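Quick check before the chapter quiz. The format below is the same one you will see on the exam, so make sure you can read both the input and the output lines.
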Amino acid sequence: MARVSFVGLKRVLIALGWVILFIAVCIGLTLGLSRVMPGWGNGWDIPRTGVIEVLAFGLATLLVGNLLNKYSWDRMGWRRPAGTPLLRGVLLGAVMSAAAVALAVVLGGARVHLTGDWNVWPRVALPLLIGLILAALGEELGFRGYPLRRLADGIGVLPAILVLAILFGLAHSRNPSATVFSTVNVALAAIWLSVAFFSNGGMPLAWGAHFGWNAGLSLLFDAPVSGYVLHVPVVEYTPGFHTWVDGGAFGPEGGIVSTIALLAGTLWLLTRKRAFEDVLPPPSVPERVAA
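Here is the expected output.
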């Protein structure tokens, strides 16, 4: 029994070591790129941030996950074909965000109305669209992908999902108008995206779902996304009087409407064919610690 416990503890510590190394490389690359990359201005600040995240987290995945820890891209969720799962994820995320906004209108008294200023919509929507695509990919590389897979191989799938979900929630806890409720909902969103990652759709499905959710809230309804008001023209969202229902200034993600939508989306993924089929470790999981 003592030997089994020691082997298990060693596996956990090695997995944590790799994930900590990954996080350290991500932080270093993010800080470095932020310093050397000039500001873009004119509404392109969100795409700039997205580019930095994708480069930093993508390079960390390549260096730590692929080159040092010898994890294949397939093992880290990048399977072919990627197009269909990506589009399926976008549709899923958009439908779920629309459901959350609809519930906010029906249950919380939120309002959505058209403003008619179509002439400025392309100028605002294009950089925002690019920024949301990149931001979704960056966060998936940082919180799913290699770190989720590596941690799952060391401590188990469910514990790994919960650990990274808590970290994902805490990472958004300092956003504008954040509350305890919004932090819990963001953590729940991480669980939903982790379930997508461990399905046969892998990273493309999780990336698409993440983007579809954010784009649905912002581009379709101009609702705040995780506390950030993006001021999309043509449509305007106004929260109701009950913050616990529609999230108030934080956006639908801060209210029970998103709790319902995220639970429904997670349940839907869990009931799909081949759900959670990719949770077992390979015959030989790399357990070498980088020197």
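If your answer matched, good. The chain has ten helices and two strands.
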